[in-house]
Amino acid sequence: MLALLHTSPVHVPVFDALRDEDHPDLELRHTVDEELLTRARIAGPAAVAGEVRAALGRAVADGADAVLCTCSTIGGVAERAKAGVPVLRVDRPMAAAAVAIGPRVTVVAALESTLAPTVALVEDEARAAGRPVTVRTLSADGAWARFEAGDRHGFAAAVAATADSVTGADVIVLAQASMAPAQRLVTTAIPVLSSPRPGLAAGADAARRARTQPVRAQNQPVRIPRATG
What we know:
By secondary structure, the chain is an alpha/beta fold. 45% of the residues lie in helices and 15% in strands. It is built from nine helices and eight strands. The strands form two sheets. The chain has a four-stranded parallel sheet, with helices on both faces. A four-stranded parallel sheet has the order 6-5-7-8, sandwiched between helices. The longest helix has 18 residues. The chain starts with a strand and ends in a 19-residue tail after the last helix.
């Protein structure tokens, strides 16, 4: 069973739909704690480390073989926690794919609190792959207010417009899982990546492996295979 830790309820149907499409035999269990993101935006991700560890502990006690954190702001905190099972952040596979595409990466985010963790993640994947990388950031101004107001289409449109304004990049990374619908709206020729589908694939693989292999050290990130060349 794969447990998912969310900071917004909008992710539940998204990941359920992806599971139905790609991993029909995978059992998912969802935990939503919006307060984690609220506090992390104010005080920083480290401020919620204890609460994240507690949430992971409950997931493990409930039978999780692995846990996938779908919030990019607190993903690093979750990934570093020692939960007794593999803990993954949803955006790591996306970051690995971005580094494989090219060295000029632009990170687009609707929340300022997501920018620094995502930049650090892309740079971490670049070091692991032995590839050079230059990361630029761009905020989708006004997009998050639309998200909070429940205007999902307006949110996606604002994110897509921001992505379409990017120049001089090899790849564009949509930093938050909630931004994935913008992929269908962009017109740019630059590849645009989002995290839900590859993140869930990595989580599904980790859950399957955890049932047959010893648990890895939990202060080490779960790596995925990278493209070569």
